[in-house]
Specification:
- There is one protein chain.
- The protein is an alpha/beta fold.
- It has 2 domains: 35-122 and 210-242, Periplasmic binding protein-like II (D-Maltodextrin-Binding Protein, domain 2), CATH 3.40.190.10; 123-208, D-Maltodextrin-Binding Protein, domain 2.
- Helix content is 30%, strand content 26%.
- It has helices spanning 43-54, 60-63, 86-91, 102-108, 150-159, 175-179, 193-197, 217-222, 224-242, and strands spanning 35-40, 70-73, 76-81, 97-101, 113-117, 123-130, 144-147, 165-168, 184-189, 200-209, 211-215.
- Strands 2-3-1-4-11-5 form a 6-stranded mixed β-sheet. The chain has a 5-stranded mixed β-sheet with strand order 8-7-9-6-10.
- The N and C termini lie far apart (54 Å).
- The model is unreliable at 1-30 (pLDDT under 50).
């Protein structure tokens, strides 16, 4: 008897490939409709475009001087968004896949499939304080910590049994200790130069951060073969990049 067709299985982890063994350029996407990819603005965008290029997906149109936020790149339609908005667009199905940092994903705890660490946008989430005014936890002072990441900060403090008031900021977190708003901060750093220029000293690294490929679960069920191609090619590109 006939029945409903079975939903395609999620793609298996792609096998490791040797450098230089990437498939041919700009592949056709099965099922016709382009895959919608959400990309973050800022420093990660160039690295993401380069990685997709290594995988055979040319996103040169994204880098053209333009105010456009939607770019037709053949088998891919690219959306250029604030980094914090990428998981939202993917979770609600406005994009099939996206590139998002581990910090954003763990802070927001989105319901997304994360098949691949892309290895780009490497940075660290750190705890920092004024070099001239270190915190003495044994003094039982009323500790205030400013951050863009209240969920991750609270988890970190609770794991260490530290009681603190968490103050959420949207930007210029380094100003917190300089103005007396907070005693410490939790923020992303790449080289730590901004901290040093503002008289701040790293206390501890909370998390190593890189960007992940995230996939909408419904898209994975409905477009499994097409997304398997994309994931497989990106995995090969990541492997080849590591060998450079």
């Amino acid at each position: 008897m006939g029945g409903l067709p079975r939903a395609p299985r999620p793609p298996r982890a792609p096998p490791a490939r040797k450098p230089g063994k990437l498939p041919g350029r700009q592949p056709a996407i099965p099922e016709g409709r382009p895959i919608v990819v959400a990309l973050p603005k800022g420093r990660v965008l160039g690295a993401a475009i380069e990685l997709f290029g290594r995988a055979g997906y040319q996103l040169d149109a994204v880098q053209e001087e333009s105010r456009r936020l939607v770019h037709d790149c053949g088998p891919i339609v690219a959306l250029v968004l604030r980094s914090g908005d990428v998981p939202t667009y993917v979770e609600y199905g406005a994009a099939d896949v996206g590139v998002a940092g581990r910090d954003v994903l763990e802070e927001e705890e989105r319901d997304l499939y994360e098949p691949l660490d892309l290895g780009i946008g490497a940075c660290r989430l750190v705890l920092a304080e004024p070099a001239s005014r270190p915190v003495d936890l044994s003094s039982h002072m009323h500790l205030r910590v400013a951050t863009k990441y209240p969920v991750l900060t609270r988890r970190y403090l609770e794991e260490r049994g530290v009681a603190a008031e968490i103050i959420k900021l949207s930007g210029s977190v380094e100003l917190g200790p300089l103005t007396g708003l907070s005693d410490r901060i939790v923020d992303l750093v790449e080289t730590g130069e901004t901290l040093r220029q503002n008289g701040l000293l790293e206390v501890e690294t909370i998390m190593e951060v890189t960007c992940r490929l995230v996939v909408n679960p419904a898209s994975l069920k409905l477009r499994g073969p097409a997304l398997a191609v994309l994931i497989d090619r990106l995995a090969a590109a990541v492997e080849a990049r590591r060998e450079l």
